[in-house]
Amino acid sequence: MTVSGAFTLTGSETRLDPVIRNDPFPFYRAMRAQDPVYYDPGLDVYLVTRHADAVQVLRDDVNFSLEHGYQDRFANGHVEEFAAILDAHGGGFIRDLAVDPPRHTRLRRLTEKAFTAHRVKGFTERMRAIVIDLITPLGERGHGDGMADIGAPLTAQIICEQLGLDFAEVGTERLARWTTAVIAQIGRMQTREEMIANAHVICDLQNAIIKQIDARRAAPREDMISDLIHAKIDGEEGQVLSYEEAIATVRAFLIAGNDTTAAAIANLLFVLATREGLVEELYPQIDDERVMNRFVDELVRLHPPVHGLFRTAMRDVEVGGTVIPAMAQVCIMYASANHDDAVFAAPEAFDMSRSNLGANLTFGAGIHRCIGIALARSEIKIAAQEIVRHLTQIRLAIPREELTYLPTLATQTLTRLPLTFRLRGA
């Protein structure tokens, strides 16, 4: 099978295939046209690929359970062994806060307290300073890796500072190990041996979080961890996060705030390096908020960092003409939906003038829409502004076909992105 062009589905194709993993969009296109709710035999998952069908699943939290979608296949079938390692060495096996209503409603109200407009806006200039400090020496050097030298350290420092962690103590590499280990539990592609190694890494992560939570309980600070553990629902006595919920929430914010945004920054650099003339087109407009907001919308539509997230069908449900059987696993393919030409004309084109930019599903839809959307969008926009302001002649340093991605269905994260560039005005 050749994936670089159009192909006919036989029913044996799987997202596990390394060739498909590194260039999944032809596979997505084939599914949308030929089998829009495709049963992936390698993953034992139904892939929902059209925009309308994805919206149906995202907005139906009765027939499609987020809680079961995450928990039923957590740790890829090794959950008991994984839990034993966490219980023995990591402060306990604490489930992700991927839950259904009514518990979701309470948790959402509490965790939203950490993402106030005031906190995001108040951190804007600090984010800008972090970006400038990071890219200036790289610009002087003239080359770097968009993931290892820009995306990963940038988002690692920002999320650590937002939460109130000491970035010098955590560091980019340690946070990257934590992130890889956590994502592997929902990515559905790890072996038992990888699960064991990842479980011990997550022990290190949880022990670090527990230390920080205990410190904030004793003495609150001006940071997100303090916001979370002291958050209350107005007028409802006793409505606070439990100790385990606080650990799970900090863990989720740390990993999601690092992994997906780092992938988005790398995608930003990839687009600037491969779309001829885009850097110079943006340069005179980088302080125009409307233009830059539209740029971010089109960037995350075309290259969303999250390609698919999971649900479980709670009963037989028809989607896109296919009956998904009860308790079957479903993956909502955000990236495929964002390229659906029934919604987005010429979906492969980068077009900031689209009238329906807000229709992209990059941050989800419905009650589980990404809670950190304001922070993520602000981070991507500021990174774009300062990269274009300071760098020019951004180019890939290797052939495009040599780029590879991490082995996970949930996210589409570059393993490396070698670039060359020049410091503007140098």
Characterize the structure shown.
With 426 residues, the chain is of the alpha+beta class. It has one domain: Cytochrome P450 (Cytochrome p450, Orthogonal Bundle). The chain has 18 helices and 10 strands. It has a 5-stranded mixed β-sheet. Helix 5 runs parallel beside helix 12, helix 8 runs antiparallel to helix 9 and helix 8 packs parallel to helix 18. The protein is globular. It starts with 17 loop residues before the first helix and ends with a strand. The mean pLDDT is 91.
Total domain units: 1
Strand content: 5-15%
Broad structural category: alpha+beta
- What is the overall shape? globular
Distance between the termini: 47 Å
Radius of gyration over all CA atoms, rounded: 21 Å
Secondary structure layout:
Elements: H1 18-22, H2 25-34, E1 37-40, E2 45-48, H3 51-59, E3 64-65, H4 66-71, H5 79-89, H6 103-111, H7 117-122, H8 124-141, E4 143-145, H9 146-163, H10 167-170, H11 172-187, H12 192-218, H13 224-229, H14 243-274, H15 278-282, H16 289-302, E5 309-313, E6 317-319, E7 322-324, E8 329-332, H17 334-338, H18 373-390, E9 391-396, E10 418-423
Helix pairs in contact: 5-12, 8-9, 8-18, 9-14, 11-12, 11-14, 12-14, 14-18, 16-18
